[in-house]
Amino acid sequence: MSILVVGSVGLDDVQTPFGRRHRVLGGACTYFATAASLYTQVCIVAVVGTDFPQEHLDLLASQRIDLRGLQIAEGDTFFWSGCYRDDMDVCETLDTQLNVFADFHPTIPEDLRDAEYVFLANIDPELQLEVLDQVRNPRLTALDSMNFWITSKKEVLTEALSRVDVVLLNESEVRLYAQDHNLLRAAQCILELGPQALIIKRGAHGAMLALREAPSCPAAESVDAGCVGERFFIAPAYPLDRVVDPTGAGDTFAAGFMGYVARTGDLSLGGMRRAVVHGTVMASFTVQDFSIDRLRSLTWEELQARYENLRQLTFFEPAKGDEFPTFSRTLV
Amino acid sequence: MSILVVGSVGLDDVQTPFGRRHRVLGGACTYFATAASLYTQVCIVAVVGTDFPQEHLDLLASQRIDLRGLQIAEGDTFFWSGCYRDDMDVCETLDTQLNVFADFHPTIPEDLRDAEYVFLANIDPELQLEVLDQVRNPRLTALDSMNFWITSKKEVLTEALSRVDVVLLNESEVRLYAQDHNLLRAAQCILELGPQALIIKRGAHGAMLALREAPSCPAAESVDAGCVGERFFIAPAYPLDRVVDPTGAGDTFAAGFMGYVARTGDLSLGGMRRAVVHGTVMASFTVQDFSIDRLRSLTWEELQARYENLRQLTFFEPAKGDEFPTFSRTLV
Q1: With contacts defined as CB-CB under 8 Å, which chain B residues touch A37?
Q2: Across the interface, do B232 and A240 touch by the CB < 8 Å criterion?
Q3: N or C: more exposed end of chain B, with fewer CB within 10 A?
Q4: Which residues of B touch A241 (CB under 8 A)?
Q5: What is the DSSP letter of A214?
Q6: The domain B3-314 belongs to what CATH superfamily?
Q7: Cα(A134)–Cα(A147) distance, rounded to whole angstroms?
Q8: What is the C-alpha separation between B116 and A310, in angstroms, rounded?
Q9: Using an 8 Å Cβ cutoff, are B248 and B286 in contact?
Q10: How close B55 gets to chain A, by Cα (Å)?
Q11: How many Å from the N-terminal Cα to the C-terminal Cα in chain B?
Q12: B276 and B258 in contact (C-beta within 8 Å)?
């Protein structure tokens, strides 16, 4: 039930209305691994430079993260700098230095190639394919990507999308890929490539799970057929009165999802839904502090409490049959 | 259990990627009354000009809508023209002609002043106050507004907000009023004016109900206190693979909410939640055709089916206690 994750480990400069942090631990792989390690064993496949602080390596190791697949290459570590304005919805990237990541090719240690759960964080889809070529018969593979690859390497990305079980993208990325503003039709376009499920991340609006097919709803059916309630699941974001730094929200959403699935092994419809809720809850903690600071002190009880709050937040009763016993209006 | 609604009845020119309609029946009051008449008796207080087609009057009357408060004044009817681009999220207003609406003052027929449920559609807050001065002891009052009044008549609007039970605004309006991008804090700002509930309309992302207080959560508590699941309710928009014309979505959301409350008389927490779901379901039908065309043929069975679909769409099970019996990770 261990998870193999391939992606970036880096150093970030981040500025938000709540402050600024210089060369803090960042990267999709770091965020994912830290959050997912709450659920199960996580193995990182990534690269850092010789400038990468030993304290960061110690921190990752102390979280029981398997670092055997972390290469240390001559040169500087991947560096990213971004700024969030008042509305926190849009991040302006100020600088990206690939550094040692430019020549990175994932090499998966022999005994990790049997990992049951594989998460391909947002990296060049060619590297994602290299990983898929190396792993043997994983139980579940999932992939994240971004606008940049959709625009610049759509063909390669399409192949990667067609080879994984679960695709995670945000709302604008789904629309961009499908060239369709309607989210249901855009989701259908991606599901037709082959994945069993698409999870659409909607930031402050939560997430939507779209399944290629469901027991009473074959793949060919219209997306707005009667089984819409079975093929789709919508979870809100956990409401917060203070968001400090949105960096890593998407990566830790994926970690909550994959972590829950890996820990429970539950790939049923209900299990996938609970996994999505774990994703949205995990992301809500991430954004309450800079870097992985909130995640480091996160407890299972805190996760559970928000999970239950979210259930209460979204619960409503069935319509009562007797509310409209004599309903008979016929509009002209 | 009848509903009194005050607002605009007008003629619209609308253009969307799905077509264009010329001088069709429009106005917040029209949309609201048509949708709410599915639930209960609705009384309109509004004004039209002498150019208003008799067929529209006949149509409204055929929906059992009480038109005794509809004034017919010398001059032209309120006219609005708008255009939705491909993304359907933003409406560009091309023209607004107040016409007879410019001199409108609501006069509520004597026997309608005892209406139990009063909805103040989006009009000048001074007129909304005039209505509140005329009605006698309503059971529930609700109000809609828009950016224009928040910017131009904030003081008057604030008085109106403080005198109603339920406020309905969209996300950007809540933020604009409170001058705070964080939605929970912005909601708190409005609730502190006096209303028991604020419903934040989020378009394609659904709606959030925020209560000033809840049984185990007094008004003074932090918005992110443990009772967040009790004070807030979040419902998604009903997913659609084709949106033809978003005009009237907000007005008919209000109609589903008010209609359900008026019909059932249920002001409990659970009743308010079901009412919000009726709002989101009603709006989903509205946007599937131009003007009130989809609403005219809407049946109770169709409403019920989407209500149940939405329940299935959002349902997930409680966390299972035995999933993490040995959970013991302590992050450093």
Answers
A1: 329, 331
A2: no
A3: C
A4: 182, 184-185, 188, 222-224
A5: B
A6: Ribokinase (3.40.1190.20)
A7: 26
A8: 34
A9: yes
A10: 12
A11: 60
A12: no
Q: What DSSP element (H or E) covers A175? A: helix A171-178
Q: Both tokens of residue A206?
A: 């939560």
The residue to which tokens 């409005």 are assigned: B190
Is B208 in contact with B170 (CB distance < 8 Å)? Answer: no
What pairing do the DSSP bridges indicate for beta strands A140-144 and B232-235? unpaired
The mean pLDDT value for A192-215 works out to 94
Identify from A227, A314, A315, A324 which residue to disrupt to test chain B contact, counting B C-beta atoms within 10 A and taking the largest count: A314
Q: What is the separation of C-alpha B47 from the centre of its chain, rounded to a whole number of angstroms? A: 20
pLDDT at B256: 98
Task: Give the integer Cα–Cα distance in Å for A240 and B326.
Answer: 29
Question: What's the pLDDT tens digit per position in A101-132?
Answer: 999 999 999 999 999 999 999 999 999 999 99
CB-neighbour burial class of residue A22 (10 A; exposed 0-12, middle 13-18, buried 19+): exposed
* Cα separation, B188 vs B166, whole angstroms: 13
pLDDT digits (tens, 9 = 90+) for B20-38: 999 999 999 999 999 999 9
pLDDT in tens, B142-167: 999 999 999 999 999 999 999 999 99
Q: For the domain A3-311, what is the CATH superfamily, name and number?
A: Ribokinase (3.40.1190.20)
Q: What is the pLDDT of residue B323?
A: 64
When CB atoms are compared, the residue of A263, A309, A314 closest to B314 is A314
* CA distance readout (Å), B29 to B7, B45, B60, B123, B282: 5, 8, 11, 10, 15
Inspect the interface and report whether the beta carbons of A205 and B202 lie closer than 8 Å. yes
ipTM of the complex model:
0.93
The residue in chain A having the minimum alpha-carbon distance to the alpha carbon of residue B206 is A205
Is the separation of the CB atoms in B154 and B134 below 8 Å?
no
Q: Mean pLDDT lowest for which of A151-165, A292-306, B273-287, B312-326? A: B312-326
Q: What is the pLDDT of residue B223?
A: 64
